[in-house]
């Protein structure tokens, strides 16, 4: 499964946020906790479309799709040189598909900051620099090796060498590989380098509870947001401590609590949604059986592959997919009406599934 790794300096609120995630996940009915790694937290992806589908095509239960976060131990300066849990830390980041970078954006004299002052940009730089150095290390090693092979005019080696020549100076400037624009071929190749700074990042500002109603007013959040924008990344403000409290509340009290705080949606829900998007994930639905259910697929996947998300037999024996969009079901109010409007589609092997598709797969067993 695709996973987003939570990283950040010590004492910025990572564990607090991770606890909120785990607690929210603990309420999920069907989750086999026993098999899960303690560093992995599962949450349901909030999606209001499920309730609407279930209203139109009632089933015994609603099943949300899930999303995985991995808690990665705190990074310190020098990690790329093996300081602290340096190597293990970098190895863990290598395993994740996207990075959720938590940055301290609250003042609190009682909570020590590793560098004794709250300075979001300096904090971001500390972590990013360790990742850049680690990448520079792998690029340099590869560079020397590929340069030799490229001299033999080997086509693949030449392409790889050209790409390394593009990446190396950017890293030497202290910038992330994700800030470089690549064409499709380069993108494929870059992926095979497994560089840490080529992964997508979501910067999460851990703001003070008082700033929750109006995060934009937080100077710290503004700094983080500006940095993210310049890099082509996204930023989000949450109060980790509040999220942990919210996660412990029963559902009906949750809404009340959020209203009292002056917000409509919990920060955790926004975080889940943003991370889901960051990973290029999308949702399709199945309905009409015992359950109304949301499933995750990777945007761009074709119908047979998507069928395989449900069961590998569905992929192997794929014949076709009967597809209605959520918008149409919502608009026409029943599958029958969607069909009568000529909006129920029969799609084949080449169909690129869209977010919000409600699908019934036809397959051979
Ligand atoms: P980690 O080292 O990044 O995992 O940080 P923790 O989650 O352990 O948090 C460090 C300390 O900061 C703990 O005492 C938390 O209770 C506190 N903390 C976390 N989030 C907030 C917050 O939003 N506001 C305040 N005032 N304290 C927080």
Automatic annotation (TrEMBL):
Keywords: ATP-binding, Magnesium, Metal-binding, Nucleotide-binding. CDD domains: TGS_YchF_OLA1, YchF. Its cofactor is Mg(2+). ATP binds at residues 11-16. Residues 280-363 form the TGS domain. Residues 2-258 form the OBG-type G domain. InterPro entries: ATPase_YchF/OLA1, Beta-grasp_dom_sf, G_OBG, GTP-bd, P-loop_NTPase, TGS, TGS-like, TGS-like_dom_sf. GO terms for molecular function: ATP binding; ATP hydrolysis activity; GTP binding; metal ion binding; ribosomal large subunit binding. GO terms for cellular component: cytoplasm. Pfam families: MMR_HSR1, YchF-GTPase_C. It comes from the Bacteria. Belongs to the TRAFAC class OBG-HflX-like GTPase superfamily. OBG GTPase family. YchF/OLA1 subfamily. NCBIfam families: redox-regulated ATPase YchF (TIGR00092). ATPase that binds to both the 70S ribosome and the 50S ribosomal subunit in a nucleotide-independent manner. This is Ribosome-binding ATPase YchF. The lineage of its organism: Bacteria, Bacillati, Bacillota, Bacilli, Lactobacillales.
């Amino acid at each position: 499964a695709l996973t987003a790794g939570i990283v950040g300096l010590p004492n910025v609120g990572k564990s607090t946020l991770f606890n909120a995630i785990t607690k929210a996940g603990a309420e999920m009915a069907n989750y086999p906790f026993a098999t899960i790694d303690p560093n992995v937290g599962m949450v349901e992806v909030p999606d209001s479309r499920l309730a609407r589908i279930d209203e139109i095509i009632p089933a015994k239960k609603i099943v949300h799709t899930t999303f995985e976060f991995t808690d990665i131990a705190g990074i310190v300066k020098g990690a790329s040189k093996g300081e602290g849990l340096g190597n293990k830390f970098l190895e863990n980041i290598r395993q994740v598909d996207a990075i959720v970078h938590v940055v301290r954006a609250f003042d609190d004299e009682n909570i020590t900051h590793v560098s004794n002052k709250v300075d979001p940009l300096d904090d971001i730089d500390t972590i990013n620099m360790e990742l850049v150095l680690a990448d520079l290390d792998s690029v340099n090693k590869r560079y020397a090796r590929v340069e030799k092979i490229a001299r033999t005019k080997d086509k693949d080696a030449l392409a790889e060498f050209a790409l390394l020549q593009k990446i190396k100076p950017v890293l030497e400037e202290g910038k992330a590989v994700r800030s470089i624009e690549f064409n499709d071929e380069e993108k494929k190749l870059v992926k095979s380098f497994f560089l840490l700074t080529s992964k997508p990042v979501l910067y999460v500002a851990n703001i003070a509870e008082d700033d929750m109603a109006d995060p934009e007013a937080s100077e710290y959040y503004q700094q983080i947001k500006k940095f993210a924008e310049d890099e082509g990344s996204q930023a989000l403000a949450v109060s980790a401590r509040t999220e942990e409290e919210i996660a412990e509340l029963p559902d009906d009290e949750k809404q009340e609590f959020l209203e009292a705080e002056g917000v409509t949606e919990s920060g955790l829900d926004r975080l889940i949604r943003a991370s889901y998007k960051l990973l290029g994930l999308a949702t399709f639905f199945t309905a009409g059986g015992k359950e109304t259910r949301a499933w995750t697929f990777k945007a761009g996947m074709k119908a047979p592959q998507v069928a395989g998300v449900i069961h590998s037999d569905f992929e192997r024996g794929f014949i076709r997919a009967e597809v209605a969009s959520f918008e149409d079901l919502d608009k026409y109010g029943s599958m029958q009406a969607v069909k009568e409007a000529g909006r129920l589609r029969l799609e084949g092997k080449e169909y690129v599934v869209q977010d919000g598709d409600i699908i019934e797969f036809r397959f051979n067993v």
